[in-house]
Amino acid sequence: MNPKQAPVADPYFPRHGDPRYRAHRYEIALDYRPGPNRLAASARIAAIAGPEPLREFTLDLADFRIGKVLVDGRPAHYAHRDGKLRVKPAKAPAAGAVFTCEVHWSGNPRPVRSPWGGLGFEEITDGALVASQPTGAPSWFPCNDRPADKAAYQLTVTTATPYAVVTGGRLLSRTTRSSATTWVYEQPAPTASYLVGLAIAPLRQVPLAERAPGTVPQSGWVPQPLTARFEHDFARQPQMMRLFEELFGPYPFDGYTVAVVDEDLDVPVEAQGMATFGRNHVDGRRGWERLVAHELAHQWFGNSVTIADWRHIWLNEGLAKYAEWLWSERTGGPTAQRKAADAHLQLRGLPQDLAIGDPGKRHMFDDRVYERGGLTVHALRCALGDTAFFRLLRDWSTAYRHAVVTTDDFAAHAARYTDRPLGPLLDAWLHRGALPDLPTPAAPLEPSGAVAEPRPGVLGGTGREAVRRFLKDRGT
């Protein structure tokens, strides 16, 4: 996306966010009491005004009691209703100026309403979790709730000592005083507001990989009774990480954390440097390993490389879906071609009236966006051949690391890897309802390489050299 392009409102959620400024850093402090579900909090937001003096601006925030609002340290006039905190500074920040806004709020956090049910901060049986995609972040903190407005975050959470606090980023400190513990996390990478994850629950930490130079730190936070099942189900995640680094480029964050809550969840939830799974996703049989791959792949596709607005959601979900197929292919399961055929058969039985390149707000989480998105990626692989295709994927995630993108950006990027015009292919898959024929490669796709099982007692195990040899043999 052109950095000089003036930001505009998200067409699917025009009431969310304020394009007149952009956030640079959030420093959020929460005091949360799980029993009464009571929150007292403050946030200091460093931001940059747009091309006009900022005489008024808005933050998205749900129904809380506002204590005070300061801009550059001075009390500001404000009004708070219908999920919007409207702020009038005593002195308007000049065009392009850096300014700070400080907000204090309190109340009982709860999910915000949406066409997909409640989103955001939610009580669970013992604790709370945050699942904000796409517009749930205002359920617990004031923010410029636009996916394109990415910022650094520091999150300080004080809660009862038996509870762990889990979020993405690096744990800076954990301090216990009396019956409360304060956890301080730092996420320096640019982060969209919907990708700030949080779990507060009685969990224990489980390391997922032996620490070694050059490896990504990985761990799980899991209810004690689920530890053995978790260790089995997530044992191959370190190998998955290594393979995805080979295919998609270096992992874009400081580490990766998986939280498992003692609650059934419809689907896992990705966040920046983190994913949250329900107890129903940990069955001791790796029955949900495709979702482990899907959520990990989002760290590249969706979290680091972030869509400019929700029209482009296929870029997140189609690439993460294809990562599932690649993991299956590389571990001796069904090939990507077989997965594509299954998805194509499924889509043939569904209405063919959805253009996934702009599916509309109502259908942005439709299964067809995911499955047809994966098929779109596979169609590119078939058209380009493996060598060019995997170079395209890796270059996409590295060239646009921590950036904001659109479908047009992806199309322009893909065009650099072939002399063949890709416009008709992408138009058919992304912008028309009728389902194209099943994509088939002009030449056979390369055979899969096996990933070894972890050695007993060693999470992550071996197999890295096998993967490296396979990729080297393929010439990628």
TrEMBL record:
Zn(2+) binds at H294, H298, E317. Coiled coil: none annotated. The active site is at E295 (proton acceptor), Y370 (proton donor). It is found in: Cytoplasm. It is an enzyme of class 3 (hydrolase). Binds 1 zinc ion per subunit. GO terms for biological process: proteolysis. GO terms for molecular function: alanyl aminopeptidase activity; metallopeptidase activity; zinc ion binding. Residues 133-195 form the Aminopeptidase N-like N-terminal domain. This is Aminopeptidase N. It comes from Kitasatospora setae (strain ATCC 33774 / DSM 43861 / JCM 3304 / KCC A-0304 / NBRC 14216 / KM-6054).
